[in-house]
Amino acid sequence: MSSHPLRPVKMTARSAILSALLGTHPAQARAQQIVAIADALGLRESAARVALTRMVSTGDLVRVDGIYTLSPRLLARQQRQDRAMEVPVGRWSGKWRIAIAPDAPPSGVGGAPLPDVFGFMKFAEVRDGVWMRPDNHDALSIDVEGRVSLFSAVPQEPSIELSDRLFEPARWAADTELMLAEYRDAVGVADRFEVAATIVRHILDDPLLPPELLPDDWPGDRLRQVYRDFRTDFIEFVNGVIEASGGTSITH
Domain locations in the chain? Predict the structure, then answer.
């Protein structure tokens, strides 16, 4: 699984705009709304306007009739973020899902690179062209028909040892505790905003393992609740800023 720095990345106009839009539904706003939010977060108006122009030219944002929306690529990222806020429910049978790619990709079959696809699906790469994970989450399914062979099996190696080796859940949990401490220590909405941006990226890296394979006192639910609470507070903050500037609020 990928990892991200524990220390929050310093907020830029681009990161502030992206994080604000990724956390709102619908993911759209007018320039004056975005500028007002950036100003309230301590960023210069000129920096926000330059960032908007560059983000349109690089394909991060789409501008239609004065409204900025996330590009299809970033809307897909928003959907992944939304799905990552949910955790698997129900019993796990003990089986694992295994995907094996052929040595040569089938002709005429396109799609995103398989490592990216299986990364989104929370599979771990065992070796080149082979991915696996516990079979506990139907929502992870992505159409890879014709690109890989799929199997279901119970490994001979104890699942807890295999999971620890492939996913390192204890490391994810330790990083989570540090992030929760960072968030508790954050003062003001701008500082919390920076930490929350790191938190949501970390949530995307949660391997979504069944409870039987998780360390004791797994902090996944606590981290998600912190982010939900932040998002609620941040939308209230954003709406207050926009309404104060004479604009229309973002609904949720």
Answer: 96-153
